[in-house]
Amino acid sequence: MTDMTTRNQSVHLSSFISLRTKFVLFISLVIIAVCSGLSWYFIKQQSDSMTRSLIGTGSILVKNLAYNARYGLVAKDRVLLEQLIDGVLEVEDSVYVVFTGPDGTQFAMKSKRNMYPDQAIATSLDGSGVDDVTITPFEATTNVQREQLYDFAVTIRRGTDNPSLFPLLSLESVAETQAAAEPPVRLYGIVRIGLTGEKMNRALTQMIGNVVLITITVIASGILAAILLIRRITTPLNSLVTVARQVAGGDLTASVQPMTRDEVGQLTTVFGQMTASLKERDLAVKQAYQDLEQLTRTLEQRVRQRTSELQTANEKLQELDRLKSAFVSIVSHELRTPMTSIKGYVENLLDGLAGALTDKQSRSLERVKHNIDRLTRMINELLDLSKIEAGRMESNFAPMSLLEMVEEVVESYHAAADEKSVAIHILPHHPIPMVKGDADKLNRVLINLIHNAVKFTPVGGEIRIAVRAQGHNCVELCVIDTGPGIPPYELDKIFEKFYRGESAPVEARGAGLGLAIAKNLVELHGGTIRVESSLGEGSCFSFTIPVAR
Q1: Residue 324's beta-bridge partner residues?
Q2: Fewest CB atoms less than 10 Å from the CB: which of 239, 356, 442, 491?
Q3: pTM (2 decimals)?
Q4: Sign of torsion over alpha carbons 432, 437, 439, 443
């Protein structure tokens, strides 16, 4: 109940969010995201560029100062150092310059605003081996505000570091000569320059303000353009929705004219054509209803007349079917006696009771006997089928062993199988329960299936028979051969009366009644019969019989 209420609320809420609002929100979010991203990227690039420019300026200043102040530090010439400091402080962004000796003492220092680096920063390079410029950003506090500073420091060492342009006039050589008795000192001193980032920050702040203003202008212009564009799209749609509601309410006279030639205008044109088509169909439906009403007045009489005719035709068909079954039963019964007599005379001739026969005569009589057996089997099948269809098939159900019946039938077919070199095997099985069935009828089913398997299995083939319990209620019997198989389109017809497979050889085709009778007999026991087959691999006929209780 709660889920249904929530779903109804969401549907009710979504109905108040128009298409125009959705489009405006979506396009506005896209414009805001794109413009904000581009602005942030531009500001970031400019900030990085300004920072790199300031760092480059400071690095150049401190390196030049270190080169020019090298001899002043060696000679400890404070006048020279202060002149160099004044030259550096003339740079707009410079704040302080500090010369520090190797022992940490400050030779000379000067600041524009009395700002110097923190002592921890000032002594961080005293014992390090760093020769390149060291840059340390920090914040200095004045009486007015906090200021962002960048400290650039570089060491001056003995040797090839900062080589002199005029080695013969080098003050370093004079100083070294004077201090020959003193222990060698590798570090001459450290030069520090402080540059302020306030000018860069002011420029960056001004640029950010300009970029934000431009971004807001672009976003506002984009949203306004999106609103105008979407209004141009949704206004014809709203008119179309209004007319569609009128048409849905049954007013087929409502119409709308296209305002544009784009897809919306085409949709409006198609909608007008659809409305005109609906008008025509409405007239046609009304006319059809009138015709139907007229037809309904006489329909009941026609139905009674057709029902009477169908009942008469059905009675005639039933009578014809009964006459057909009676005819088949009488003819089959009348044919059985002469066929039995003919078979007896042929067997007597073959046994030599009428005198000796030549080989040619014996072969001819064997063919006659084979055809008589075939006719007799067909006559018996016709009689059985007529009994089944007439409901006169008597049954004697009793508990019996299906496995023992299989062994008996297989034993009777060993001779016919050996003539074709066909092997018949009964597969191993678990204990099989007794089934409730009519022994004669189940024997007829088994004979039919095994006879067909022997007939269609080629020379050297194999027939396997499996009997197994199917759950606790049924026993299943399977006859598996290695014959040519049955095409898929014949599997649904194989159990129909008088159906003979088109793929079977002509000499192997019967009357098409054996499997139909087997199906009726299995169903008479309350079981089912089915077939599975693959072309070139063989077939498997199986049926189930209920277990005896």
Answers
A1: none
A2: 356
A3: 0.41
A4: negative
